[in-house]
Amino acid sequence: MPPSSNTGAKNTSLVPSENRALIDWLAWTVKEFDPHAAIASLGLSFLPFQASPGGGMGYRSTLRCGHITVFFDGAENMGCHFVMSGQGCREFEGRVKNSKNRTVAWYRLMHSLQAAGANITRIDLAVDTVDGSLPLENVEKSVRERRVQSRFREAMMYEKIALTDTEKPTGKTIYLGSSQGKIKIRFYDKMAERGLSPDLGSWVRAEVQCMAERAAAVVMHLCKGVEFGELVVSCLNTYYRPINAESVNKSHCSTQDWWSAWLTTTEKIRLTSAKAVKYVTDSMEYVKRQYGATFAMFKKYLGVAAFSDFMHDLVSTGRDRMSRKHTDMIEITNLSELLPPYHAF
User: Fold this and answer.
1) What is this structure's pTM?
2) CB contact set of 297 (below 8 Å; sequence gap of 6+)
3) What is the pLDDT of residues 180-207, one digit of tens each?
4) Rolling Circle replication initiation protein N-terminal domain: which residues (predicted)?
5) 129, 267, 298, 305: which has the highest count of C-beta atoms within 10 A?
6) CA 121 to CA 125: how far, in whole Å?
7) Mind listing the pLDDT tens digit for each residue in 53-107?
């Protein structure tokens, strides 16, 4: 059982200070063919979208703002498709200045999507538990022993095991549901995923991935005033309920105490926000976008040899000024390249 005290984690900026509930993916399609008109109609003009090379998902062109992408220029009836990845959701929140307004921004966006007749194709609901009340080993044990009442017929586990001291394990992930299903659930060790020491405490994430009409239903319920935590709990308990083996008929079995306790506290959690994780590649893209022309000017003015000396001196000076923030960014970026595709399931 993870420690109930999480003092170490609370002193770490990379770990949430308390249990929280998040939107961790949102995707939708609108009929509007012009991406700029679509962005404006949804109240997203405050996001600095820029043209990006290439397309995807059947579209020929894209606009991007960090990890928020607008796909456009498809067939006549395809309109525009928006994707906010998990990182994109955090960047969306980060663009809202006042933290109290971030929840309002989410609800305003969802109301705008409904008003625009958007087709919601995916939404992921996540709950981060850092107080030790959601032990991953309890979830695994219930699944392995088949002491679960569920509409799902299958589960899958992923675990990367390090064979050397230099290789970092990324923890265990428990998937419930079919990869083709419209609802999927996953539980995983977020602390291990981030490469953080278990000495800092416990951080387990539970995610509900909703697709197609299930995603549309989630947005509809949120717009009608259903509390976020209550909605997540309802989804989870419908598709995963660890039970005590009291009857052959699982519906007659009582719920395991630890799960009941976790649900009781989780349903009271309101939609919150999180700080975006910064990767080295994000900084590289930022420098390229903001200072590419400036560095080109330097090279043209100095010439190849002098410019090379300038860059060497720049890096040498910068190396002495690197902080823990920069080394953490390198470690997280390296680890992210080894992670299992959570969102691909």
Assistant:
1) 0.77
2) none
3) 899 999 999 998 888 777 888 889 999 9
4) 21-110
5) 129
6) 14
7) 899 999 999 999 999 999 999 998 999 999 999 999 999 998 887 666 788 999 9
